[in-house]
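Students often ask why we bother encoding 3D structure as a string. The short answer is that it lets us treat folding as translation between two languages. Here is a chain of 140 residues written in the first language.
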Amino acid sequence: MAKAANKTVANKTSVTSFIASIEDDVRRADARAATKLIADATGQKATMWGSAIIGFGAYHYKYDTGREGDMCKIGLSPRKAGLVLYHVATAKNAAASLKKLGKHKVSGGCLHIAKLADVDQAVLRDLVKNAYAQMTEKYG
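And here it is in the second language, the structure alphabet:
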């Protein structure tokens, strides 16, 4: 049986156009600001992954099942309920920083923020920087 192709892959969709298409003014402004914050913290250019994830950097993974693919080291998805940051909440020493971050939720390795104004952006930048460094250490 053939393996299903990964749905979330890097593509050439414009990040600027994607952000501009966000209807809610606050969500659009938060997505723009978070994209800049993450790009500054990682030193990576923003790239679209799938239809709704803004990614920074990339790594290759391979599971014991044989499934493998590529994914962004840090991801940002501006959703209706707020911003979701991928791979940030599981970084080393994240627990201490998360206590200082402000209003947020954690689900798996994802950090959920309703509004960027709800969190300390310097703490968020440090979380992103540490998570990116950890992903780079692990995957190259």
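Translate back mentally: The beta strands are 10-11, 46-49, 53-56, 59-62, 68-71, 74-79, 82-86, 105-107, 110-113. Keep this in mind for the problem set.
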